[in-house]
């Protein structure tokens, strides 16, 4: 714990979900920018570390080896993120554990003419319900003090807002 004006400040553990091949450089920058503020921002690529096609086993590994001890999942959303099944599964497992959920919209995210953006469907459901909070990448880097506030806001949301009834992705898009 860090000390801040005599009060103990908890260093939150966060899990970062992202498309490893497409957004590794953003993860690396995120990690180097915020590793001092959070206890665990590590690259736990499920795609590379879990060699199984058994969904139950993979979800147990996500919960026990990747999310355990984390209070919040940060999803880095780039162009290919909505098409990645492991990102969907990590979001699903995070919601099952009632973890906070923060979306960081990367510059590569697909933008629609109506002003919307392409995010993983399960994440979008929870943004729409008011459970998940979100921020643009450049705004976050311009004001790094915003992330702890977003994490605390996400953790403080009513768990009744969680929407996690969508069918899970069975393959990458």
Can you put this structure into words, describing what you see?
Residues 1-9 have low confidence and may be disordered. The strands form two sheets. Strands 3-4-5-6 form a four-stranded parallel beta sheet. A two-stranded antiparallel sheet has the order 1-2. It has 173 residues and is an alpha/beta fold. It has seven helices and six strands. Helix 3 packs across helix 4. The chain has helices spanning 20-34, 46-49, 55-67, 85-96, 121-128, 137-142, 146-155, and strands spanning 2-4, 7-9, 14-17, 72-77, 100-105, 133-136. It has a single domain (13-161), classed as Rossmann fold, CATH 3.40.50. It is globular.
What is the element layout, followed by pairings?
Blueprint: E1 2-4, E2 7-9, E3 14-17, H1 20-34, H2 46-49, H3 55-67, E4 72-77, H4 85-96, E5 100-105, H5 121-128, E6 133-136, H6 137-142, H7 146-155
Parallel strand pairs: 3-4, 4-5, 5-6
Antiparallel strand pairs: 1-2
């Amino acid at each position: 714990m860090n000390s801040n004006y005599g009060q103990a400040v908890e260093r939150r553990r966060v899990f970062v979900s992202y498309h490893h091949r497409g957004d590794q450089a953003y993860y690396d920058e995120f990690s180097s920018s915020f590793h001092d503020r959070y206890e665990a921002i590590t690259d736990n690529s499920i795609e590379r570390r879990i060699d199984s096609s058994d969904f139950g086993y993979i979800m147990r590994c996500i919960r026990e080896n990747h999310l355990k001890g984390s209070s919040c999942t940060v999803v880095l959303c780039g162009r290919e993120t909505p098409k990645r099944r492991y990102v969907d599964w990590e979001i699903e497992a995070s919601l099952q554990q009632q973890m906070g959920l923060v979306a960081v919209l990367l510059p590569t995210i697909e933008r629609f003419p109506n002003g919307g953006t392409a995010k993983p469907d399960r994440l979008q459901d929870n943004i729409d319900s008011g459970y998940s909070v979100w921020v643009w990448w450049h705004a976050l880097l311009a004001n790094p003090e915003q992330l702890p506030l977003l994490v605390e806001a996400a953790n403080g949301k009513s768990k009744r807002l969680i929407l996690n009834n969508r069918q899970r992705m069975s393959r990458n898009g």
